[in-house]
Amino acid sequence: MQPHPSSHLRIARPSRDLQQAERFWTEGLGLQVLYRTGPEAEGGHALVMLGWPEAAWHLELVDDPQEHTPPSPTDEDLLVLYVGGPLDPHLIDRLVEAGGRRVAARNPYWDRWGVTIVDPDGYRLVLSHRTWP
Predict the structure, then answer these.
(1) Are residues 86 and 120 both part of a single domain?
(2) DSSP structural state of residue 40
(3) What are the residue boundaries of the VOC domain, all occurrences included (predicted)?
């Protein structure tokens, strides 16, 4: 079997503060908790999986309070969501209130076509008003 267009995609990232990161993605962006486990899970790390139930992807955040594998995002580590229309300014406000920080993109393309928000672990979320494809 090979991957195909409907294969589910998991994006996994370490987090310094799982509660703070969860708040950003749920209260800010509106993702739902799809699954959660504590440190008793296989591997010894608490984690939370966030997404929309009908989406073909989800975001897994793994607790790493001791920073054995600290988040190390760059300005080009982007999670881009194409919303297909004007961005709701209340959404941007919610993301900031939930612990995000609006920043200028390293690549001006993203400032032209959207808004870049840094999450509590330093990863960048781009909300593009364009559509894909």
Answers:
(1) yes
(2) T
(3) 7-130
Surface-to-core class of residue 84, CB atoms within 10 Å of its CB (0-12 exposed, 13-18 middle, 19+ buried): exposed
Residue 4, in any domain of the structure: no
Residue pair 114/130 in contact (Cβ under 8 Å)? The answer is yes
Element (DSSP H or E) covering residue 10: strand 9-15
Q: What is the pLDDT of residue 47?
A: 95
Q: What is the mean pLDDT of residues 53-62?
A: 95
* Residues 34 and 58 reside in one and the same domain: yes
Helix (H, G, I), strand (E, B) or coil at 102: strand
Residue 94 included in any domain = yes
Please give the helix or strand (H or E) that residue 124 lies within, else none.
strand 124-128
User: Rounded distance, CA 108 to CA 96, Å?
Assistant: 21
Single pTM value for the model: 0.93
Q: Residue 65, preceding bond cis, omega within 30 degrees?
A: no
Please indicate, yes or no, whether residues 41 and 83 belong to a single structural domain of this protein. Answer: no
List, for residues 17-40, the tens digit of each pLDDT value: 999 999 999 999 999 999 999 988
At 68, the pLDDT band (50, 70, 90 cuts) reads confident
The domain in which residue 18 lies consists of 9-63
